[in-house]
């Protein structure tokens, strides 16, 4: 067997020689062919040859079983060689992707921080508005009274519409807290 020859090619060549000898009138026994095949294999099959000689009785081993075992071994070797080659290619691709992903991650992180900051600002604004406006469309209007001081007046937008319930306004006034220190609505000073 030559170094670049595959097991299936070698199997065809051995069977062709055995069939030619049978046509010429001389039948070569399988045990003799098995022994000659094991001796003629290339060096990459030395490990498998030793394993076959120890595991099987070579005098009863059929030629098909031998080539099946050798073909399986050859496929396992070629798979390992392919995986080694691919592993190196994957490493270089991975390193390039890691650099790209790292820069993408930084860009995504910047976008996330900007979005978080924007959302946080909106939440803060809503909280400030809740403190000054209250719930259920209650709003505070500041206006300057006759005495010149800033005064806060509370009204309900719903009750100012036509047909609104003006009695409801007085019930809802109890919901707001008035600060003892500054007199503002929507917050209070702890005692």
TrEMBL record:
<protein>
    <submittedName>
        <fullName>Gag-proteinase polyprotein</fullName>
    </submittedName>
</protein>
<dbReference type="Pfam" id="PF14223">
    <property type="entry name" value="Retrotran_gag_2"/>
</dbReference>
